[in-house]
Design a protein that fits this description.
There is one protein chain. By secondary structure, the chain is an all-alpha fold. 55% of the residues lie in helices and 0% in strands. It is built from 4 helices and no strands. Helix 3 crosses helix 4.
């Protein structure tokens, strides 16, 4: 499927190498539309929504011994960060396999 490309756009806009290559394809009429564009678009949009959902924070309630929370708050204060941030970092590092836990 050929698309009409308006060659009258401002040639003053600097293009990087990739954009120049795309422009050449469009100028030659070699642009080929994705046959299942709507389906592919929906898949990509759904993936983007799931990614955004995974990046959101979730509030939880924990029972922690008083001595442990006092130590956490002290370490967080020494690093000038809120203790909740420190707890979140510890959980993230463990979840990503960057920190080992001795059980």
């Amino acid at each position: 499927m050929k698309k009409n490309f308006n060659k009258n756009y401002s040639d003053e806009i600097p293009l990087d190498d990739y954009e120049k290559e795309l422009k050449e394809f469009l100028d030659k009429g070699e642009f080929v539309s994705e046959p299942n564009f709507k389906e592919t678009k929906k898949i990509v949009e759904d993936a983007a929504k799931q990614f955004v959902a995974l990046e959101e924070s979730k509030s939880i309630t924990l029972r922690i011994k008083k001595k442990d929370i006092i130590k956490l708050k002290a370490r967080a204060a020494r690093n000038n960060i809120p203790y909740q941030t420190l707890i979140g970092l510890l959980i993230n590092q463990y979840a990503e396999g960057k920190t080992k836990l001795t059980l």
